[in-house]
Every structure is written in C-alpha cells, then in structure tokens.
Task: structure prediction
Amino acid sequence: MAARRPLIAGNWKMFGRRASLGELSQLWAAVADAAAGIDVLICPPAPYIQNAAWAARETGLLIGAQDCSPAADDAARTGEVSAAMLKDAGARYVIVGHSERRALHGEGNALVRQKADAALAAGLTPIICVGETQAERAAGRVAEIVGVQVRESAPADPRIVIAYEPVWAIGGTATPTIPEIAEVHALIRENLRASLSGEANGVRILYGGSVGPKNAAEVFSAEGVDGALVGRASLKAADFSAIILGHPAART
Ligand code: PEP
Result:
C-alpha cells in the first residue's frame, strides 16, 4: 500500500479579515521548497474562501471550508452554504463535526455524517472531527466515545480524513502524551476497518489540539499520525510554517 500523504491543515475559525490572506503568500514562501511531499491546507472563514483560493492560485496551498450544509442539493435553507457552493468558490476540503460546532450548535453524529456525505457528493474531502471531553477521558470512556463518533459520523469511503481532537486539548496548552495519541489513532483505524476493511489503511488520521511550533515534531513522531489540524497557530505564517517544517516529510 502506498504511504499516506501527510496533511497539515489550518483552521482559522472566526478570526481574521481579508487582509489576513496576506499570510498565505508568506506561508508559501517559507514552506514551498520543503512541502512538496505534504498537503498544506488553510480553512479561512467562509466569506474569504474565494479570495483565499485566488491568493493561493500560484502556490501549492490548498483552501478549505470549516463547515457545510448537510443538504446536497440547492434548497430553501437560509444562511446555509452547500458543499457544492464551497467547491465552486475554490475549496477542496471541508471540516465537519468540529467540537465547537458539536458543542455550540448541538451537532450530533448523524448530522455530521450527512455533512460528510454532502461533501463527498460535491467532490470535497471531509475532515471529520472526533474526540472525547476531559470528563469522558477521566471516566475511561475514550475508546467508547471516539469509537461511536467514528462509526456514526464517518461515511464508508476511503477519501475521508479523520481528525482526532480531544476537546480538552483544544485552545489550551494541555495535550495527550505521545503514547496516548498513538493509542487513539490506532483505535480510530480499527473502527474504520469495520466499514472499510483494508481500505481503512489509506485513510489519513490527523491529530488536533494545541499543536504549535514547539511540540509539532513530537506530535508528528506519534505512530499513526498523518498530520495535524491546527487552530491558533495556523493564523500566522511564521508559526504555521514552523509546524510544517517540523514534519519529517519536510526534511527529506
Ligand atoms: C482546533 O480548533 O481545531 C484546534 C486544534 O485548535 P488549537 O490548535 O488552537 O488547539
């Protein structure tokens, strides 16, 4: 089986303005030589996707979205944006089921699954987020919670990407240990095997949660980690490029 191509994705969340897109050219200038073997993705806020795609047109940077409608076809859904529209605007990927959407908008596994299906139908790659809360980890329920999220949120399609993002590690400083990250990545792949059999080996599984320039190389060394989903540290080209350059594939 061919090696999985690393993916390092930046989630800008609801930060930045049009001027922030200037970071893209700085980012590419810093990583262009090293990133030939890595997919580098930026997911700006929805209104900036088209401008971001334009700004990235002569670079190898990929542009993605942070969410999409579960409806595959055009529909009377005020305020929603379909995966097809995101693709039309220049997105190649879309994050679905981020813990902030699960918590703030009550999104459950069934809805996340519909969004991932809509993304695939439109030709976008869904990055499906899963991860336990602090209380669930303390109760020894990581395998149960993450297993159910993977089985219920992820379509049986080898093009998907999974992001393991422990809720308690997002936006802070704490992260799981390297063996803990490796353990959850292995259990995610095991759960993918239930629906994908051998094709599960081709699915990329990212780690997300307080990845920064200081710990990126260590995180990338964890068994089964195919890249990262990065929040805060993706906003500035200097930080995000340092993360990318910390990947072993950037050194070869
Ligand atoms: C995220 O929100 O997906 C994330 C990983 O955030 P941070 O890197 O800021 O912890």
About this structure: The radius of gyration is 17 Å. The mean pLDDT is 97. The pocket of phosphoenolpyruvate is lined by residues 11, 165, 170-171, 208-211, 229-233 (CB under 6 Å).
